């Protein structure tokens, strides 16, 4: 039974909408009568969630966000940041960083990483001003180009997150990637948009400018595709959910509304 509870809790955690992990945890505590041991047993699910969602965290003494991802994981709950050349401990449950230490950058593609980080920063500033981004060494001598942009508006009952993750292989000049958008709207209902686009391998010269030009083109096309999809939903599926005519199958002639029985009743006329 305990293992089933941990599995169920892990599923809730991994499926938490953007910006709502703390709410999910509070609900779990209520359902489990604040059994902290279950949350501790679900620690791997918290780690998976934070790495997949590219969680951002501020290092102690710093106002700048850094990323949590599989690519900058050092194991044993520690991660590193390329820009500050530091490593830190990260608690996946509280989402807090601590124990910052110096950490040198080790990569055979340091120059490309540095130039790619600069062009990524320019791209992010232009298109995703509130985003957090980074370039990390990745397996098989590749480079991971990551970006996450969060926008939370709980007072208006919605939260959203956009994530992009690219892998560039300098040896083969191959670029692959995945783009994800996750939006949760929960005013008087519960609607969630989850969409993913995969970039098939494409050949791009080992130049930060060329790599970013390709990424910008892909993201522009994806966003235009999303806009067209929203238009189709508005004019198609959503519109078909609404009744085109009243139950009488006749359109209301508003200029003659006073002649209708309901109009007379509202106006105080004789029934």
Q: What this model shows, in words?
A:
With 271 residues, this protein is of the alpha+beta class. The chain has eight helices and eleven strands. The strands form three sheets. Strands 7-8-9-10-11 form a five-stranded antiparallel sheet, with helices on one face. Strands 3-4-5-6 form a four-stranded antiparallel sheet, with no helix packed on it. Strands 1-2 form a two-stranded antiparallel ribbon. It is globular and about 80 Å long. This is F-actin-capping protein subunit alpha. Belongs to the F-actin-capping protein alpha subunit family. Heterodimer of an alpha and a beta subunit.
Give the topology, please.
Blueprint: H1 2-14, H2 21-31, H3 36-41, H4 43-52, E1 56-58, E2 65-67, E3 73-75, E4 78-81, E5 86-91, E6 96-102, H5 110-127, E7 131-138, E8 142-153, E9 158-169, E10 174-185, E11 191-203, H6 208-235, H7 237-240, H8 261-267
Antiparallel strand pairs: 1-2, 3-4, 4-5, 5-6, 7-8, 8-9, 9-10, 10-11
Helix pairs in contact: 1-4, 5-6
Subunit structure: Heterodimer of an alpha and a beta subunit.
Keywords: Actin capping, Actin-binding
InterPro entries: CapZ_alpha, CapZ_alpha/beta, CapZ_alpha/beta_2, CapZ_alpha_1, F-actin_cap_asu_CS
Helix run count: 8
Q: Strand order within the widest sheet?
A: 7-8-9-10-11
Q: Tell me the helix content.
A: 25-40%
Run of helices and strands: HHHHEEEEEEHEEEEEHHH
- Judged by helices, strands and strand pairing, the structural class is alpha+beta
- Assembly state here? single chain
Low-confidence stretches: none
| Large-scale geometry | globular
Q: What's the β-strand tally?
A: 11
Overall pLDDT level: 89
Radius of gyration: 25 Å
Protein name: F-actin-capping protein subunit alpha
Family: Belongs to the F-actin-capping protein alpha subunit family.
GO molecular function: actin filament binding
Keywords: Actin capping, Actin-binding
């Amino acid at each position: 039974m305990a293992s089933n509870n941990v599995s169920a809790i892990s599923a809730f955690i991994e499926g938490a909408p953007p910006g709502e992990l703390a709410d999910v945890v509070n609900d779990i505590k209520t359902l489990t009568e604040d059994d902290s041991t279950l949350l501790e047993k679900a620690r791997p699910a918290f780690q998976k969630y934070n790495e997949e969602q590219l969680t951002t965290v501020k290092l102690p003494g710093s106002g700048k966000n850094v990323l949590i991802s599989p690519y900058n994981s050092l194991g044993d709950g520690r991660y590193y940041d390329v820009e500050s050349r530091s490593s830190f401990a990260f608690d996946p449950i509280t989402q807090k960083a601590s124990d910052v230490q110096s950490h040198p950058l080790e990569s055979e593609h340091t120059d490309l990483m540095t130039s790619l980080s600069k062009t990524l920063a320019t791209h992010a500033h232009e298109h995703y001003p509130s985003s957090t981004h980074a370039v990390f060494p990745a397996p098989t001598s590749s480079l991971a180009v990551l970006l996450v942009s969060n926008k939370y508006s709980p007072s208006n009952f919605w939260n959203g997150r956009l994530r992009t993750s690219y892998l560039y292989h300098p040896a083969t000049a191959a670029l692959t990637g995945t783009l994800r958008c996750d939006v949760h709207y929960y005013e008087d209902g519960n609607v969630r948009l989850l969409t993913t686009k995969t970039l098939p391998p494409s050949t791009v010269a080992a130049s930060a400018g060329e790599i970013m030009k390709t990424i910008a083109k892909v993201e522009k096309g994806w966003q235009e595709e999303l806009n067209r999809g929203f238009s189709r939903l508005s004019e198609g599926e959503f519109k078909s959910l609404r009744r085109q005519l009243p139950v009488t199958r006749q359109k209301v002639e508003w200029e003659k509304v006073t002649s209708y029985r309901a109009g007379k009743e509202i106006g105080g006329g004789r029934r």
